[in-house]
Amino acid sequence: MALGRLLRGLPAEDYCLLSADDEACAAAAGGSPASVGGLAGPVEPLRRPAQGRRWTRLARAPAALLTRAREIARAARRRGCGALVACSGDLLDLPAAYLASRRLGVPFVAYLFDDYTHQWTTPARRAFAAWCERWMLPRAAAVIVPNELLADAYRARHGVTPLLVRNPTEPQAGARVAPTTWPRDGDVARIVYTGSIYHAHGDAFRRLAAACARLDRPRCALHVYGPQGARELAALGVSGPVVAHGRVGPAEAAARQRDADALFLPLAFSSPIPEVVRTSAPGKLGEYLQAGAPLLAHVPGDSFVAAFLRARGAGLVAAEPDVGRLARALAELADPAVRAALAVGAAAAAREFELETARAAFLDALELAIAPAPRRGQA
Prior knowledge:
6-stranded parallel beta sheet
């Protein structure tokens, strides 16, 4: 989604996507010039590594890495690419793109949406990623990250100076309108979450539902706009004053965010990847900030989200895994002075995620990476 927004304003001939994503491969197989997310640039499909038992996949990782690198090099040579930008979602894509860049003699840019090493839960994958990082990132022409804490982690780990590109938001047609009453409509405050709920942060929703059930004034209910229905949420233990509305499109999600009495942003307190939670920059953070409704973040206190919101006064942070703390936070939001202060902070913070700002930072990073190094003796 972030890449789609960043690239959408560029001429189609200026870039191409190399992807093993099913949608991308289907578009390429059908001869469609459109790639992913409505982008006009072409797609070069990459083959998925052969599946098998976990240990056999890991044993084959070095060979699969070299195969993927050759595949990327061939595709990039076919398209005449002057640089390779690789993202952190896949175990092989980053190091394979680096090897391909060396083969082609073009700059390599690492775009790290999350901590590449610590996003893997199995020791073998984490060790493989850490090994790749050590020889890959110090030699990158640029390293891009979405937040300061992740930049600090890579600076400490490899001595690199990452460039900051916030996860961009789409411009919204509706004006920001901070709620003047609580609840905005009726007598039950609507606490809205847009997206999927899964095991990694299901406990946060169970605590919020319990906090809503505990309050008599103001009364609150959690409204979920995502793929899970009431039965699936109940199986995760999320029940009580909870309304499941089903999946909605981006425009509808933005409208529901603007209509909310508060927006809920959770991160896991107990996770096999605490380093990733700490340095995570959720894509919906910018969307929530621009919506106009007050933001309630139930996140660990040492996370980027907590630090960002506190520093800017842009959201109310409940940093303890405690139902009582969440109930007190919901009660605080009933105070019009609290909501007014949060609205001012959120409006200012939202500007950091504006699409044109992020796109300019992304293109500046690419220009810096692609610019020829000065010759010896040059300033």
